[in-house]
Write a structure and sequence with these properties.
about 130 residues; mainly alpha; globular; Globin-like
Length: about 130
């Protein structure tokens, strides 16, 4: 996980703590929304992914607030809700795409396109961030 955090901080300019929180939110989102088999394969290929997702889920105390939280709730959550969580963690809107791109590039290196392709393809709207 340290390698991924370092790559994300280099690519986005985020500090390590923010990058770690953001990665955890994305992994928890994939765990919830993605195809179980491929997500399990991704997590197996990325030591620390389970812990990062679990840590992200510990902070869940109901739905997020604010306009983005309301929009995410109205749209059933999904990528909008993830975006709201990332902003709340300190990720500026302009850094979400580079963050996602780096995380998915790392996932492709570790688990392969045959794992990452179905994950991206199964979650509506996710392809705009990878």
């Amino acid at each position: 996980m340290e390698e991924l955090i370092a790559r994300v901080t280099t690519k986005t300019g985020l500090d390590a703590a923010t990058a770690q929180a953001a990665i955890g939110h994305i992994l928890a989102f994939l765990q919830k929304e993605g195809p179980a088999t491929e997500v399990a394969q991704l997590f197996a290929a990325m030591p620390g992914a389970d812990a990062a997702a679990a840590q992200s889920n510990q902070g869940e105390g109901g739905s997020g607030g604010g306009l983005m939280g309301m929009l995410g709730g109205m749209m059933g959550g999904g990528v909008m809700a993830l975006g709201q969580k990332l902003m709340a963690a300190g990720v500026p809107m302009g850094q979400m795409q580079p963050l996602g791109a780096e995380l998915f590039a790392f996932g492709r290196e570790k688990a392969g396109e045959d794992v990452m392709g179905p994950i991206v393809g199964s979650i509506p709207g996710l392809n705009q961030f990878v």
